[in-house]
Recover the amino acids of this structure.
């Protein structure tokens, strides 16, 4: 039973998170930070939108650069 | 009826994502059919299609009725973004030569070799190995399509459009597969995955930001400057950033040959 639950959980983790957990963690962290900023209403919606878009681009580029550094020369 | 930019994005993403995944599923089913048993391979495919239909209906009902629009946008946007960035990351690495391209002919040969080496077990009158491998192949590849179709469709209020795009891809892959009777190795899989990654990332960011309105003091969706016009701007941003990454990696890193 425990093995079945583990297999089920592992399948969905792999399905959603994929083979680079850093991207999933980065997106979730980014959304959480943006949610706090929106809740506190400290900046305008347009700035939140531009900030999130820019941060996501930087996140994926950072993951790609990291992958490239680890790739065999 | 005229299609908006958002509708066009939903249909295109569903069609391409579905097409790419079904090409991979077709390779597995063909290998099982050729090497083991067409009857078991087709029953495995049919069983997977039934399971996927049940999941689609269940997921579509839950997503469509249980949550507010902004909360749905936030959850779906976050998941699509995670999915899209993974597709995009791999496509960029493949385009830059840092990750081996997916080779349907090689996969077909590997699946065939494994099928011929596996033992023979008969269950319910079917070659069990061919049935299970075909079922798993179609189910796992199809699950991603179901997820994209349901989430994309629900967020854009266009589940029929998204399902139509996926179904059209299914028909195209099935007809071409039946005609050529071999893996569709000529399909530019990496390019298609790159385009799907761009679209998922674009809509993912768009819906995440709109969904963040859930946390705003007044609630409701957060607005983008320019509304839906932000979509082509986001797409252009992703395209520019990814091409910059590919170009830079090609210049600075030698390609991987395996």
């Amino acid at each position: 039973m425990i093995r079945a639950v583990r297999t089920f959980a592992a399948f969905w983790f792999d399905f959603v998170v994929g083979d680079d957990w850093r991207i999933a963690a980065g997106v979730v962290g980014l959304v959480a930070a943006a949610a706090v900023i929106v809740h506190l209403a400290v900046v305008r919606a347009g700035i939140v939108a531009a900030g999130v878009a820019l941060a996501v681009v930087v996140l994926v580029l950072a993951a790609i650069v990291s992958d490239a550094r680890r790739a065999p020369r | 009826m005229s299609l908006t930019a958002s509708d066009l994005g939903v249909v295109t993403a569903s069609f391409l994502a579905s097409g790419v995944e079904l090409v991979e599923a077709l390779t597995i089913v063909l290998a099982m059919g050729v090497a083991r048993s067409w009857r078991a391979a087709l029953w495995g495919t049919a069983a997977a299609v039934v399971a996927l239909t049940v999941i689609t209906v269940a997921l579509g009902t839950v997503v469509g009725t249980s949550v507010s629009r902004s909360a749905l946008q936030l959850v779906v946007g976050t998941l699509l973004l995670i999915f899209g960035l993974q597709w995009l990351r791999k496509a960029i690495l493949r385009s830059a030569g840092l990750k081996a391209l997916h080779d349907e002919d090689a996969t077909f040969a590997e699946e065939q070799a494994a099928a011929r080496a596996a033992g023979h077990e008969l269950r319910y009158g079917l070659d069990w190995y061919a049935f299970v491998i075909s079922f798993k192949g179609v189910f796992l590849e199809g699950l991603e399509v179901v997820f994209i179709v349901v989430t994309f469709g629900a967020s854009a209020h266009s589940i029929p459009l998204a399902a139509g795009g996926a179904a059209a891809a299914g028909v195209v892959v099935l007809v071409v597969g039946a005609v050529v009777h071999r893996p569709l190795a000529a399909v530019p899989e990496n390019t298609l995955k790159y385009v799907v990654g761009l679209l998922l990332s674009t809509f993912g960011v768009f819906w995440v930001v709109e969904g963040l309105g859930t946390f705003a003091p007044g609630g409701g969706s957060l607005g983008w400057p320019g509304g839906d016009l932000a979509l082509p701007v986001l797409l252009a941003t992703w395209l520019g950033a990814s091409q910059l990454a590919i170009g830079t990696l090609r210049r600075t890193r030698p390609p991987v040959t395996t």
Summary: The helical segments of chain B are 5-35, 38-65, 69-95, 104-117, 128-155, 159-180, 189-211, 230-252. Residues 5-35 of chain B form the longest helix (31 residues). The mean pLDDT of chain B is 85. The interface with chain A takes residues 74, 78-79, 81-83, 85-86, 88-89, 92-93, 96, 98-99, 143-144, 201, 205, 208-209, 212-217, 222-225, 230, 234, 237-238, 241, 245, 249, 252-254, 256 of chain B (CB under 8 Å).
